[in-house]
Design a protein that fits this description.
With 183 residues, the protein is mostly helical. Helices cover 64% and strands 7% of the residues. The chain has seven helices and two strands; from the N terminus they run αααββαααα. The two termini are 39 Å apart.
């Protein structure tokens, strides 16, 4: 995950009020953000320190509990709010090309055995079918607890996966009919 995305996530979470890094992780888990981001536990703590050092966030307090480590609370600064708005607008306008490794393989598929290719595609189909079920289940779990904008993320992810599934099924059929070479 790039620095801009990490920054957007952490600043965005703090736009909702002060939080400690563990709470940020918890919110991300509850919203099942692992389905569409790749922000790891260690990177949250590292990023929080970096963003504090550059003035985007600041310590707002410490929670002390018996027999538990202290939890440092952070809040977003005015500079952080400005940065958040700029990042948010940039993310909405950013265009990124998607590359799937299968595209490169397909260019040379005519040099391989069609049955083998069909079997490999079948494995991808099973993976996508499982992925769709997991995303649909995750979506149903988070539906009542997240903003409408998050609903659109899941709907988009599910629809993209269904499109991939249809495409892979068509590709598999071509491979089974030995039509992955020149037409």
């Amino acid at each position: 995950m790039n620095v801009m995305s990490v920054k957007l996530i952490i600043l965005g979470l703090l736009m909702g009020g002060e939080k400690h890094p563990y709470e940020m992780q918890h919110i991300m888990r509850m919203r099942k953000m692992d389905k569409f981001t790749s922000l790891y536990k260690g990177s949250i703590y590292f990023a929080v320190e970096r963003f504090k050092d550059v003035g985007l966030i600041e310590v707002s307090g410490v929670i002390k509990e018996d027999k538990r480590p202290d939890k440092t609370l952070y809040k977003i600064t005015d500079a952080g709010k400005t940065e958040f708005q700029e990042l948010l607008m940039e993310q909405f306008t950013k265009e990124e090309q998607f590359y799937d490794p299968i595209y490169t393989a397909l260019v040379f598929a005519n040099y391989s055995d069609s049955r083998t290719i069909a079997n490999l595609i079948e494995q991808k189909i099973k993976y996508i079918e499982k992925k769709i079920k997991v995303m649909e289940t995750s979506y149903e779990e988070i539906k009542p607890t997240v903003p409408r904008s998050v609903h659109h993320i899941y709907i988009g992810l599910i629809e993209h996966a269904k499109t991939d599934l249809r495409w892979l099924q068509s590709l598999k059929n071509d491979a089974l009919e030995n039509r992955v070479g020149l037409s």
